[in-house]
Structures are given as structure tokens and as C-alpha cells.
Amino acid sequence: MAARAPVTAAVRFLRAHKAHFSDHLYAYEEKGGTAASARELGVDEHAVIKTLVMEDETGAPLIVLMHGDHEVSMQRLARQLGRRVIQPCHPDRAARHTGYLVGGTSPFGTRHALPIYAEASIANKGQIYINGGKRGYLVCMTAGELWRLAEPTPVEVAV
Questions:
Q1: What residue segments make up the domains of the chain, in order of their start?
Q2: Which of 28, 31, 76 is nearest to 54 (CA)?
Q3: 3-state class of 43 per DSSP?
Q4: Domain 9-155 listed as CATH 3.90.960.10
Q5: How far apart (Å, rounded) are the C-alpha atoms in residues 119 and 65?
Q6: For residue 23, which of 34, 42, 7 has the smallest C-alpha distance?
Q7: Positive or negative CA dihedral for 22, 27, 30, 32?
Q8: Could you tell me where the DSSP H helices lie in the chain?
Q9: pLDDT digits (tens, 9 = 90+) for 4-59
């Protein structure tokens, strides 16, 4: 019998907003990142979108969405946002802001509304895979659906 997809805060958000998405479960690997999820699902890592929780110099949190095979230039992000510093949020603080564990963070259904920024080139992808709110669980949707639901501000910070 196949495993059933979890009903997370992200899934409840997606259903409430009549999103078009499909569920994709995989064997989660601690510290495996998007390379592991892409391998497990047999998809291009560039189509797997990371949800990163960061904070500025005042401790204000924000979410950055990035292609799985790229990193975020925090210096370029800070410059584009008019901030002095952007840095990764400590996992405990990220969980308090989002309600999700690191490795299972979704931009949908977060505990607190956070500003969301997305690498601009994500909008050019057809299908993307993004965390559904639990480790080992991604949802697939079009990039247009991501833009409709998350309303991210586009940035160009990939390295």
C-alpha cells in the first residue's frame, strides 16, 4: 500500500486556495538537500525549489525561494533589499517563524506571514517541486501557480 500524503498547514493552504498540485513523497535524507529529493523523485534538481528562511540585521525574517542547484548570494540579496546584512536564520528561530522544521519548510501556510522573495528565473520554469510542509514531501505545481499563491518579489541573487 502506498504511503498517503500528509495534511500539513501548507496542504491546507493550497486546498483553501484551490491550488493545482500533486503530492510527491520520498525517503528523506538528513542533510541530503535538494540533490537527494531530486534523485529520489527522478527530476532535475534545478526544478526543485528550496525554501530558505533568512533574517536581516534587525532579526526580521524573510523567505527566499531558490533553484535547488544554486546558492543565494546574501550580499547581493541584502543590496537588492536595501539591507545591511542578510543571513540564514537559526533553525530554532526559523521553526518559530514558519511552524515548520528545517528540511520541511514550505512557503505556504507559515505560522506568521513573512515576505517572500524568489529567484526571478523560477518564473520561467514549467513544473516545479517545492516543499509541502514536511520532510520527505514535495508538491509539484507550475511556476505560475507558485507566483499566484505565494506572490513572491522577484530577485536575482543566484550563484
A1: 9-155
A2: 76
A3: coil
A4: yes
A5: 6
A6: 7
A7: negative
A8: 9-16, 33-41, 74-81, 91-98, 143-150
A9: 888 999 999 999 999 999 999 999 998 899 999 999 999 999 999 999 999 999 99
